[in-house]
Task: structure prediction
Amino acid sequence: GDSVTQMEGPVTLSEEAFLTINCTYTATGYPSLFWYVQYPGEGLQLLLKATKADDKGSNKGFEATYRKETTSFHLEKGSVQVSDSAVYFCALSSFMDMGRRALTFGSGTRLQVQP
Amino acid sequence: NAGVTQTPKFRVLKTGQSMTLLCAQDMNHEYMYWYRQDPGMGLRLIHYSVGEGTTAKGEVPDGYNVSRLKKQNFLLGLESAAPSQTSVYFCASSLAGMRQPQHFGDGTRLSIL
Result:
């Protein structure tokens, strides 16, 4: 079945450092790919998405490019802030039985940004 | 802008008790989902619904039942709670279509003693 693998956390960075969170996937067909962010005590929020190969999703300074050849969707940000501290989830849109779809999530990567 | 609302936010149950978690969305979304979130395991799909009156099993459906009697509501039931069902439960909704993102509620933290 479909699966998503994320780098283990926590990732601890100083403010203004460069961020990369690795995400690779296994899927049949051509899934859409997503990054979600979860702040403490809250639900998941969509951060960015890409729906086909070579698409780049971007939002709030975060970027990720859909790389079909390497089955990857790594999240990057050039300069992190303390407010970026959260758990980040990579996900892909999978087809369940009878052609219906749902999200398959990675295990999440906790980011801690220190002032 | 309510979005997806889950009730209750917290609940403690004893083993064997039953309860129902309620999810309501005001975005007229066709699809609704229930996930559970456990440490180190991301989110796992319990059940989902692609429209009023239809439900289907996800990855971890055992011990749960669901109902979608109205388009805006999706109920998750635990008939006989077990300690293994201690988790944070998230409801989500989306428009139909593979490219559509899901919108999440703030979660229900459930402890089974």
